[in-house]
Amino acid sequence: MTLLISLFLFASCEKTSTIGLQIDPSTAIQGSLVDTVTISSRTLSDQIVSTNGLARNPLGLLKDPLFGQTEASLSMAVNVPSSAYNFGATPTLDSAILVLNYGGEFYGDSTANYSFEVRQLMDNLSTAESFLSNVNWATSNTLLGSKSGKIYPNTRVKVTDIVAGKADTIRSASPQIRIPINKAFIEENIININTDNFKYNENFLRFFRGLQVKASTPSTNGAMMFFEFTGATSGLYLYYKKQNTTTNQPDTVSVNFPIVNTSAPVVSTVTHNYSSTPVATQLANPNQQYPVTYLQPLSGLRTKIAFPYLKNFVANVGKVVVNKAELVIDLSSGTDPIPFNAAPRLALYRYDIAEQRKNIPDNDRGSLTTPADPRVTQTAAIFGGYFNAIKKQYVFVVTAYIQDLINGKTQDYGTFLAPTPTDQFSLAPSMASGARAVIGSFKKNPVAGDNVMKLNIYYTKIN
C-alpha cells in the first residue's frame, strides 16, 4: 500500500511549466505599461447643496492654516411631542435642556474648550422653499442659552430619566451636548401658551419657529462636529412639576419636544473664508497648473482633472486593450499635521453632456431604475479612493473609463475628485465630513520624493 501511494504522489508532481498547453512565444500576449500620460488638474469651488434631510449635520468653527476658516451653524425646527399635548394644571418649569446627539463624525481638536450659543429663529423653517448651505437664517438678538467647556464626541453620558409617580432612574445615553435654555423664555413661549398651538405640529412650528446654534470662536484651531437628527433623541427636553391627579401631590415629569428632520427641517449654514491662503490664489487663477490642488468637503473645494493628450497616446501606439488603469494620487508632504488629518476617502466621478454628476463605469453599480455597468469593480474597496496612511496616497481603478475614453465611447466633459465620508460614497458635495486633503499634480519627470498624480495604463497592443 505504501509503495502504491508513493507512486501516485510522484506521478502527480510535475513542474508547473509542463502543466496545460504550451504557448507559442510568437503568439503570447505581451503587456506594456505607460505612466507618462499628462494629467491637468485645477482647484475649483464645489457646488452649493441642500442641507435638509442629511444623515448628520455639521456644526463648528475650524481654523486651517491652508484652507482658512470654515464655520457651520445649525438651524432647527422644534416639534410637538404629540398632538394636543397638555401640561396639566398649574405646571412649574424646573429646567429646559437642548440635547444634540453626536453623529459619529468629528474633525479637529477634541482637547480644546468650546462655546455654543442658542437663539430663536425669526422665520418658520417649515415654510421655506430652499435649504441651501449658503442661506443665512435670521435670529433674534436675545441669547437663550449657552454652554462652554470640553466636549466628548465619543463618550456616553449619564442622564436622569424622570418617571411619573416613581423614583427617577439613571441611564447611559449616546454622546451628546446638553445646553441649558432660559426658563423664562420656555415658560412664555411653550408652557403658558394657548393649548391650540399644540393641537397640530404645523400650529406649533408657526408659533415657536425654532432654534439656531452657533459655535463661538475657539482659541485653538477648532473643530467641525456632526450631529444626527434622524431619530427622536435630539430635542428640547423640559422638566416640570404638575399636580398628580391620583395622589394630589406635585409630581416631576419630563417631555421631549423632538428635533427630527423627517418631521420638520434641520439645516446647516456653512461659510468658507479663504482670504490670504494658497487656495485663494488658485481660485483667482483657474487656468494655471499648480504643483498641488485642494480638496475640501462641506461644499468647499474639488479638483477637476483631464487627460488632454490621451488621444496622442492612441495615435502613437495604435489600438490597445487596457488590461488595467490606475489613477495614483499622492498626498502632498507635510499637509496633514494633527489635527488636520487627510481625508480618509475621495470620490471620483464625471460629468455627462448636461453636466450632471455620474459614476465612472468602474464604479457604476446601477440604481433602482438603471442597470449596473457590466465592467464595474466587484467592491468599493477594489475601486479605491481610500487613503493609504503608509504610502500617503489614494489609488483608483479606472480601467473601463480609460478604455472608453481611448475608444471615443465616452467624451470627457469633466472628471472630478472630492472628499467623501468613509461610510458613504457621495457624488454630491459631502456635508457629512470635515476632513480635507492637499494632493500632488502631474509631473513629467518626477524624482524620488516628489508627490505627484499619475495614470498607470497597463495595455496590450492589438491589430
Task: Write up this protein.
By secondary structure, the chain is mainly beta. Helix content is about 10%, strand content about 35%. It has seven helices and 24 strands. The protein has helices spanning about 1-10, 185-190, 200-210, 280-285, 310-315, 380-385, 400-405; strands spanning about 30-35, 40-45, 55-65, 70-75, 90-110, 115-120, 145-150, 155-160, 170-175, 175-180, 210-215, 220-225, 235-245, 250-260, 265-275, 290-295, 300-305, 320-330, 345-350, 355-360, 395, 415-420, 435-440, 455-460. The strands form five sheets. Strands 3, 4, 5, 6, 7, 10, 11, 12, 13, 14 and 15 form an eleven-stranded antiparallel sheet that branches. Strands 2-17-22-19-20 form a five-stranded antiparallel sheet. Mean pLDDT is about 90; it is low at about 5-30.
Task: Name the poorly predicted regions.
Answer: 4-30
The rough form would be described as: elongated
Separate helix tally: 7
The largest sheet, given as strand count, sense and whether it forms a barrel, is: 11 strands, antiparallel
Taking the alpha carbons of the first and last residues, their distance comes to 57 Å
> Measured on Cα atoms, how large is the radius of gyration?
29 Å
- The count of β-strands is 24
Overall mean pLDDT: 89
Helix content: 10-25%
Strand content: 25-35%
Helix and strand content put the structural class at: mainly beta
